[in-house]
Amino acid sequence: MTSNSIRQKEIAEKTGYSINTVSLALKGSPRISEETRLKIMECARQLNYIPNVVARSLVQKKTNTIGIILTELMNPILTETAQEIEQLLKQAGYNMMLMITNFSPEQEAEALDVLVSRQVDGIMMYPLVRANFSKIRAMHDQRFPIVLLAGGEYDSPSDAVYMNRQAGAYKAVSHFIQDGHRRIGFIRGAMNDEEKQNGYTSALQDNGIDFDPGLVSIIQGDGYKAGYASVQSLYEKGKATAVLCSKDHIALGAMRWCREQGIRVPEDIAFIGFDDIAASSFADVPLTSVQYDVKSVTKKATELLLKRIEEKEHKVGAPLQKIAIDPKLIIRQS
């Protein structure tokens, strides 16, 4: 009995349906009602069921298509990443199929399933940290080429090429400290910013500054409005004299609030952002930012994925590659 047959039997036992019903539902058969199909698919997702198409795609003729999974498209860094990857893939004779997860673990799992069902030759993705790592690991174990574009700092389930965001935050906070700041705030998003906070706290600790949770603001969203709304509490009562923001958009929104209140940047409060988007250098006070080197990440990730695809023997259990790109701190006037 194959491993997939065993997994289908497990799904049947958990849902109470027959193995034949489970098999038909997983194949999308119109003979199965939508309610039944949804129950079976949800159970399959929880069990990280990987369809046989993964194995079949490895022996069938290549489709010369690469799946790309991004968390959003509003972020200019991710838009630039998609454009860079598309150009690199074109040069190598591949097409790109783009999926967006909107920061949803369910949509991320679905995107993986859709791309596998389309028999793409490999996948590059920005994962929601840990959300579907078990599923990605199961795909990797079945020799499906996947390169992550973030999350390499963690127990990565697959190859990863990523910007070392912890090192970037460490550099930013160290720069503040060198400028004499001791009350340093941090505005971060609710998801995927753990490594940045680790860098923030490490820099404080290494410089003998106690971590104050009151100086960390965790916000929903990462746009201009979020930064505008979140900085007031850090500035009032002399709490923070400098603020690291997990995105440039947040920092630019926070600086706008300061300007409206007559608070001088950087004389009264200083800011550093993340990603070094184009708008940062054109702000009223040009923003210091941790640069995201899109070209380095995309070039190395594309090369690694194509290497995995072209390898004659992709050995199960072979050492994963984790390539960390060290970010630069672009110092301006903020």
From TrEMBL:
Coiled-coil regions listed in the entry: none
Matching InterPro entries: HTH_LacI, LacI/GalR-like_sensor, Lambda_DNA-bd_dom_sf, Peripla_BP_I
Keyword annotations from UniProtKB, A to Z: DNA-binding, Transcription, Transcription regulation
Taxonomic superkingdom: Bacteria
SUPFAM superfamilies recorded: lambda repressor-like DNA-binding domains (SSF47413), Periplasmic binding protein-like I (SSF53822)
Keyword Transcription included in the entry's annotation: yes
UniProt key word DNA-binding: yes
Entry GO MF terms: DNA-binding transcription factor activity; transcription cis-regulatory region binding
Domain HTH lacI-type positions: 6-60
CDD domains documented for this protein: HTH_LacI, PBP1_LacI_sugar_binding-like
Official protein name in the record: LacI family transcriptional regulator
UniProt source species: Paenibacillus piri
